[in-house]
Design a protein that fits this description.
2 domains, four-stranded antiparallel β-sheet, about 250 residues, alpha+beta, Endonuclease I-creI
């Protein structure tokens, strides 16, 4: 396993781990790869993530609800897999401030590997948002509906922030939105954001990166259907909206 080739599937799992994962490496003889997300993402874990782990490591994982933290996912206790992920560059314990794209992926400049890492990261820790437009030059529809799309990655790791920007540049997205701020609460880390603005870059992102998380994909697809995406809807509510005819 130590010399396993970096495949697109493995790059995607690295992105998933960067977003929602945690490694425990030997403390009190506990070896765990713990990955879980919002309970609304059950379909994503059951239908997509499980298949990736089967392809890469040849294991069958069992996803479940973690009531104490209200998340859904899985825990792997295979010591060789945990050590392999650590050797790729993922730390044991808290990783939020130090996580990055593994060197073998980042230094490859391989657009396929980078897009698959971004897919995993976006599916677990990224987001697509929609806002209204303000001002006299905009139509009433644009002033009253969340029509303008924004792809956003948020992290407290400066290195991951730089890696995301570089990856999007390699994938041909040109200039991206860059923003950082220090939270008002004491002892909180500086936050970094990378954003892609507008319909053209959003459609290109979904074409190239091709996210697989249904809860996020449904936001994009609903926007494509009715050219806006109402806020505060659940994934189930968005699915119901797909069944309604479009008003011409």
């Amino acid at each position: 396993m130590k010399n396993m080739k970096i495949t697109p599937e493995l790059a995607e799992v690295c992105g998933i781990h960067a977003g929602d994962g945690y490694l425990r490496g030997g403390e009190k003889n506990r070896w765990e790869l713990d990955i879980s997300g919002n309970v609304e993402e059950k379909e994503y874990y059951d239908l997509h993530v499980k298949k990736l782990l089967k392809i890469i490591f040849g294991i069958k994982i069992h996803c479940r609800l973690f009531p104490a933290r209200n998340t859904y996912g899985f825990v792997i206790r295979d010591k060789s897999i945990i050590k392999f992920m650590h050797d790729l560059g993922f730390p044991y314990g808290a990783k939020s401030i130090s996580v990055k794209i593994p060197n073998k992926i980042m230094s490859s400049n391989d657009s396929n590997l980078l897009s698959r890492f971004l897919r995993g990261l976006f599916d677990t820790d990224g987001g697509v948002h929609f806002r209204k437009s303000y001002g006299k030059k905009y139509t009433e529809f644009k002033k009253t509906h969340n029509h303008y799309p924004i792809i956003r990655f948020t992290t407290i790791s400066r290195q991951l922030y730089d890696h995301i920007k570089k990856s999007l540049e390699i994938l041909g997205f040109g200039k991206v939105g860059e923003y950082s701020y220090i939270p008002k609460k004491p002892n909180e880390n500086k936050v970094y954001e990378v954003t892609l603005y507008g319909p053209e870059k959003t459609e290109r992102f979904f074409n190239i990166v091709s996210p697989k998380n249904p809860t996020k994909l449904s936001r994009f697809l609903l926007w494509k259907k009715i050219w806006h995406c109402p806020s505060h809807l659940t994934h189930a509510q968005r699915k119901e909206m797909f069944k309604k005819p479009v008003n011409k």
